[in-house]
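Lecture 7, part 2: worked example. A protein chain together with coproporphyrin III.
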Amino acid sequence: MSYDALVLVSFGGPERPEDVLPFLQNVTRGRGVPPERLAEVAEHYLHFGGVSPINQQCRELLAAIRADFAAHGVQLPVYWGNRNWDPMLADTVAQLRDDGVQRALAFVTSAFGGYSSCRQYQEDIAAARAAVGPDAPVIEKLRQFWDHPGFVDPHADAVRSALETLDPARRNTTRIVFTAHSIPSSAAATAGPHGGRYTAQLEETARLVHAAAAPDLPYDLVWQSRSGPPQVPWLEPDVNDHLTALAGQGVTGVVVSPIGFVSDHLEVAWDLDTEAAETAGRLGLDFVRAGTPGTDPRFVTMVRELVAERTTPDGERLRRRLGELPMWDTCPTPCCVSAARRP
Ligand SMILES: CC1=C(CCC(=O)O)c2cc3nc(cc4[nH]c(cc5[nH]c(cc1n2)c(C)c5CCC(=O)O)c(CCC(=O)O)c4C)C(CCC(=O)O)=C3C
Ligand SMILES: [Fe+2]
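Predicted complex, written out as structure tokens:
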């Protein structure tokens, strides 16, 4: 199959205070997030001057992918569009059409399956294409990459470097704490064609990063950034509650590794570097947060490899992966949608 562009598709974030509320309204439209939660999250953004780091991180990734493609003779032009803030996907898709693009691949800045991590991106791509009309290009999402070495290895190196900053005398009471965005338990149950994919993939990433970084230390996978109304169950434990439990068990320090994410965006900068770090401080735990892939050259190479899997005959044989869970290029529809919302 031949394609004539790659689109980097990301979440989007505000870059000035007056954009914070309209951005949050885009994110939560029709999703039942209570106003108290929105006000609280608005404060997190305003704490950083109303600037989410995510767009700048996308610009840097975009530049790195373009440079890597140029260095390796990959002719595809690379575009960028977001789900929730400028540059909005619909504008990007209109640009693709104006530039004569007929078939594009999409690299989504989320490694996992599940509604928020995968299906919702596909729905937003479909909505952007519908807004542009019948001459919008076809856009196909690249596969999930939770166990690709270009994702796992940078996370593992980051855990190793983070550990090195802690007192070696206390290594044997140090815990590796992997985190990912919590989601409603109902969404976890319906993630992927057979359910449970988001959690299963995160468990696999955690196992792989742990084995590469610090196999002698115990580790856990916990959740962060819970949203939604309090009476709706979400994945638990929350990272802050988990740190409290660890402190009660004789653990003296933690390396917190946000394997659920590809860059140090606001959920990392606020929920971990600010909030969880404060929790750890109160508990007297040593705390160090491990980095994310960002523009690590191995992560950028992975994007080129994922493209090659789709543009080379029998490209499946090129798949580089470390895990064992089932893998596919194209999600069946409906997938990751609760029975109640299925068409
Ligand atoms: C699984 C998942 C990922 C990982 C996959 C991926 O990376 O896409 C993720 C990433 C992100 N989430 C982000 C921001 C927000 N997420 C929200 C709300 C929600 N997230 C959810 C899930 C996820 N979210 C869910 C189930 C909700 C409830 C509302 C709904 O059902 O949709 C809200 C509303 C306020 C609130 O937190 O309640 C905000 C502002 C940003 C941008 C950060 C920045 O600006 O730097 C990023 C990368
Ligand atoms: Fe989110």
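The radius of gyration is 20 Å. Residues 11, 13, 24, 27-28, 31, 33, 37, 41, 52-54, 109-110, 116-117, 181, 183, 225, 227-228, 260, 265-267 surround coproporphyrin III (ligand 1) (CB under 6 Å). Keep this in mind for problem set question 3.
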